[in-house]
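User: Hello! I'm new to structural biology and keep hearing that structure can be predicted from sequence alone. Could you demonstrate with GDP-mannose pyrophosphatase? Please show me the input and the output so I can see what each looks like.

Assistant: Of course. The first part below is the input, the amino acid sequence of GDP-mannose pyrophosphatase. The second part is the output, the predicted structure written as tokens.
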Amino acid sequence: MFQGKIIDVGIERVRLPNGRRVDLEVIRHPGGAAAVAIDDRRRVCLLRQYRYVAGGWLWELPAGKLDPGEGPAATAERELAEEAGLVAATWESLGHLHSSPGVFAEVIHLFLARGLSEVDLGHGADEVIEVHWVALDQVLEWCFNGTITDAKTLVGLYRAAAFLRHGSEQLMDGPVAVVAE
């Protein structure tokens, strides 16, 4: 078993629903939360962030890991302030996602943040971040054309667009229900 600052890696013996016992490699993570911050002009706050493991710069939502004793909504609020220098007057849950459930035990909670105002930035020394405001229609185009490749960002943006278009009744704590028109 490896225990790191953020993740634990190990092999776990489990019984599957079919009764078979197998050894699975599992990466344990405390989970995270992301904020889809949209202003009154329908612009989205996106971060252009350097990610060594991904091989360069990525477009991402403000997001981060859950601290001990911290709930997902508090994490989203903290990360929005630290990484983007923003606070929001209203928050809506956009459900959650499993980032890579074959091996990674991480759940990311998604939130829509509106009624935005600025505060001082406070991101860490290990983060190289640029804050950008991009029109929602342009951001959705970036989702479709491959400019945005980060999974939590893709899911968060799609769910936020569905929420803005159809309202909360179209969202579940899981996939967005797509309604044919």
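User: So the tokens describe the shape?

Assistant: Right, they're a compact way of writing down the 3D structure. Reading them back into a model, for example: Strands lie at 2-3, 8-15, 21-28, 32-37, 43-51, 56-60, 63-65, 86-100, 104-118, 129-135.
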